[in-house]
């Protein structure tokens, strides 16, 4: 006898817990890929009559689910078990999506209404959550777009600051020349003696002007350095915001994917009357 697949073993372990959690009388059957029953959990009021080791008939819905690799919902005639039953059967797959067995759950048809109402409530809840997730997704996308725009404007600000810094350097070069011109003028005025006194006054003013230019450009340079630090800090913050926004978008996409899978799972396990 082949060894039971680990996934089927885990399902076997979980079935009693599932039956207790359902609080609805049910019959649960688990078979392997060779249609051999490896788990039979009858209900309190009814049993499908299968025992572990029995080979399930090819005509049963459970065998068909494994053979055709699809989920089925069928009505079981009342005369067979003195109860009107509905059964949901599905194939079981491994991590490589290969069929390794089948699972069947049978319960009284009267519980269909309860399950349908449960499904509808779950569906409404998932739809509401999904709508909220879409709104958050739009907000996160807007955050990323805004942050990207700010990042581009920040780069342009850095370019403008560099241009201003270059202008200051040019002004300093002019100031140095003016200062040198003032020094030369004072030298020439002293050589001219009494006749050069007026020229000496002009030379002093030129030197004062160059000194004032140096002081002014020094203040501007200090302010620009402070602005560059702020811009650099803003740049880092924007970069972090973009990273967070990207993570939010990716996270929300994963949530939406999970919600979609939950919706599909809810749909697949809804027990409906086969038409």
TrEMBL record:
Keyword Ligase found: no
InterPro entries cross-referenced by the UniProt entry: MCP_chemotaxis, MCPsignal_dom
GO biological process terms on file: chemotaxis; signal transduction
The name this protein goes by in its record: Methyl-accepting transducer domain-containing protein
GO annotation, cellular component aspect: plasma membrane
Residues of the Methyl-accepting transducer domain: 162-268
Pfam families referenced in this protein's UniProt entry, alphabetically: MCPsignal
Protein family according to the UniProt entry: Belongs to the methyl-accepting chemotaxis (MCP) protein family.
Keywords of this entry: Chemotaxis, Transducer
Molecular-function GO term, any one: transmembrane signaling receptor activity
